[in-house]
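Students often ask what a 'structure token' actually looks like in practice. Rather than answer in the abstract, let us consider Methyl-accepting chemotaxis protein, a protein of 382 residues. Its sequence is given first.
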Amino acid sequence: MISINALEDLKKLAETQADLIPGGIVYGIINGDTMEWVQYSKSLNINVFYVGQKLREDSITRNAIREKKTLTQKIPRSVYGTRLDIISIPIVDETGKATGAFSMAFPRLHPVAGAFDRFAPILSQMFPEGVFLCLTDLEKFVKVQSSKKFDIPSIKVGDKFESDFLSGEVIKTGKEKEQELDALKFGIPVRNVSFPLIDEDTNDVVGTFSIITPREVAVNLKDMSGNLTENITGISSAIEELAASASQIHTNEQELNSDINKIIKLSEEINEVTSFIESISDETKMLGLNAAIEAARAGQAGSGFGVVANEIRKLSDQAKSTVPKIKKLTDDIKDRVEESSEKSKGSLSSSQEQAAATEEITASIEEITTMSERLNEIARKL
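Now compare that with the structural description of the same chain:
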């Protein structure tokens, strides 16, 4: 209880302390059933007490006076628009009679709301891309905190939040919610995570605490990752086609090399046949010479045979003179074919290397594709 003689000192103390109470407070002095003095914090904008106010018989203050003891009452939001705690302390005169009461009313804040002004400025500096923090009651924004890198000017203290704002859903369900918003809402893509504030006495939802973070970097990263994946897919398809072509070229080069080896073998066989023709030519010439000798011995009777022998020698000489030409041609063919063979072997080696390089590129593309998918996954988590 408070002595009536201490009221003036109590008023001075209340006037000094009113603006120092977190969340605000209103003091009142009641004489009998009438409010005769009131002191509000500047930050408190509610009409709880006013001078000349008549108190009901069943009010907490009248009960405190009657019972001569300090009483406390929790006032629901429906009465003054905010939850309040009211404490009434009896005032007694020199005889000990309770003649009035000293009452205090202050908003009953959720612990998060009570600590918001202390932790929000610190928390706002802990997000690399910036952050916007806000508190709501059941219908409007009551506190906001922006960061240097990110702000939402359209959200102001005292404004009612729109029906599609995430806090409305959180208040209905009483559960934490998360929402991704595109640039149409706040100018850039954002993520809003909202938490319900639960009254510790009634377990009712009394407000929400929301953390809104920009998602511009993450969205750009996701788009880049998607484009990268798309481009890599196209490159991978082209590489696969190139690999198939390289494989076909390699097969063709193998077949060509095999055909060239067969031609070289045929040239060698032609040379063998040429040698055989040359041998036959020598023998034929010898036979023609012998026939000419025998024709000479036979005289006039062998003159016809001598003509035949002479023609045989001519054919033999012609055949023998043709042999070097054939040999030269076959040697030239063999040289050209051998040159082609060397080039074919080089092409075969190159096609093998190309096939191997294509396989390595394909493996690298697959690895990059995996990294791109991982990058996309990281972007979704940001």
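One point worth highlighting: The two ends are 58 Å apart (CA to CA). Ask yourself how you might have guessed this from the sequence alone, and why that guess would often be unreliable.
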